[in-house]
Design goal:
- About 25% of the residues lie in helices and about 30% in strands.
- It has helices at about 5-10, 30-40, 90-110, 170-175, 180-200, 205-210, and strands spanning about 20-25, 50, 75-80, 110-115, 120, 125-135, 140-150, 220-225, 230-235, 240-245, 250-255, 260.
- α3 (about 90-110) packs across α5 (about 180-200).
- The protein is globular.
């Protein structure tokens, strides 16, 4: 299979701007950290920072992201969405997770779901985690970095695999064979670009994203820094906030928190 490198990635892409500037590392601390530094220095829209291994890979709430070298896709994209306000930045997470769902269906024929707010699941097991970090200039969104860690060829069977907080899977596990990371990356970046251009043109992704939510219509528990909220997950709004209906009928808008299925 084709090895990841800046040259090989550029050759594989047929995008107009996403991934046309590639920063590749065999190993890096965190692709998100490097992407933020590049964004602060003026890196253009669509810059791709990608590595075969991350020494300090992390997810939401600074949780560690484990990935053996050379098996998965670990990358971050820089966006400069001048058409979005800071409170609308979750729309970028929506289009990136939906783009991955598109590719998963193309590659496996399976239906991927979304665990609010930032995971993509396959068969109820975690396939991908996303992490968005923003750069603000006063009240304006200067840039957004969206990091993605996608389990492509890992099998979690090795002795060095850590105990996982949530069940996980990979494309290899689902297909029963290894798959080209380059093919997945090229297809994904094409879909990200197409969905970004639709977003720029005014199309809102939240209805489609909502249709992928795995806990929709179920009683959930949302753990937030200062309280725990229990109610019925009824949907999301245009900015990706989770809508939770209380027993008294009141609907609360949740911007951040850990969501689990409430046992009846």
């Amino acid at each position: 299979m084709i090895a990841l490198s800046a040259k090989n990635i550029r050759s594989a892409l047929n995008t107009a701007w996403v991934g046309q500037l590639v920063v590749y590392h065999q190993s890096v601390g965190s692709t998100n950290d490097e992407a933020k530094e590049l964004a602060e220095a003026g890196a253009p829209d669509g810059t791709l920072v990608i590595a075969d291994h991350q020494m300090r890979g992390r997810g939401r709430l600074d949780r560690q992201w484990w990935s053996p070298p050379g098996l998965n896709l670990l990358f971050s994209l820089i966006f400069r969405p001048e058409f979005l306000a800071p409170h609308q930045a979750q729309r970028l997470m929506m289009i990136c997770s939906l783009a991955l769902c598109d590719v998963v269906t193309k590659v496996t024929g399976l239906w991927a779901t979304v665990k609010w707010p930032n995971d993509v699941l396959l068969g109820g097991r975690k396939l991908c985690g996303l992490l968005a970090e923003l750069g603000l200039s006063s009240t304006r969104l200067d840039y957004a970095v969206v990091g993605m860690g996608i389990n492509v060829n890992v099998d979690f069977a090795g002795d060095d695999a850590p105990a996982l907080m949530t069940p996980a899977t990979s494309l290899k596990i689902e297909l029963g064979r290894e798959i080209s990371r380059m093919e997945v990356l090229a297809a994904l970046l094409r879909r990200v670009e197409a969905r970004y251009e639709s977003l720029r043109a005014g199309a809102l992704p939240h209805d489609e994203w909502q249709s992928r939510l795995n806990l929709l219509g179920q009683t959930v528990q949302v753990t937030m820094p200062h309280r725990v909220l229990t109610g019925l997950a009824t949907g999301v709004d245009a900015d990706g906030a989770l809508l939770v209906q209380q027993p008294d009928g009141k609907v609360e808008r949740v911007l951040a928190g850990d969501v689990t299925l409430r046992e009846q």
